[in-house]
Design the sequence.
């Protein structure tokens, strides 16, 4: 059975996430005239870009430590889906109740950063 969640897939998803964050940010800045949806999109895009880059950082740490980056990368991608995804949905008229789910994405981001910190603990100190 082929392994589905490979480093290549994580990195491709991170690159796609970076692309989406730029597109959404540009739309928020130039395509919307209402403040509330634009702010939701800008916040979602900022966190999406930050965590797309964090996935790449997770794999850099994995390369330096020999540890798996899958947990941190997966948490960053899941956090993006939940946090940014709910903000995007609300900006486009989705139910406001989605705002109750948004913090779950934030907690998932925090867990990803802790997983990355744990992985980074094996980086050898260079003199």
Sequence:
């Amino acid at each position: 059975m082929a392994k589905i969640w490979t480093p290549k897939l994580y990195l491709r998803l991170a690159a796609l996430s970076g692309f989406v964050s730029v597109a959404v940010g540009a739309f928020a800045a130039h395509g919307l005239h209402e403040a509330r949806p634009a702010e939701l999109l800008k916040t979602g895009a900022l966190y999406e870009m930050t965590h797309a880059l964090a996935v790449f950082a997770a794999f850099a740490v994995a390369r330096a430590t020999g540890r798996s980056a899958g947990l941190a990368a997966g948490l960053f991608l899941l956090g993006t889906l939940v946090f940014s995804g709910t903000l995007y949905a609300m900006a486009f008229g989705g139910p406001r109740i989605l705002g109750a789910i948004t913090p779950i994405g934030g907690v998932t981001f925090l867990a990803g950063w802790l997983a990355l910190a744990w992985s980074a603990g094996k980086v050898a100190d260079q003199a």
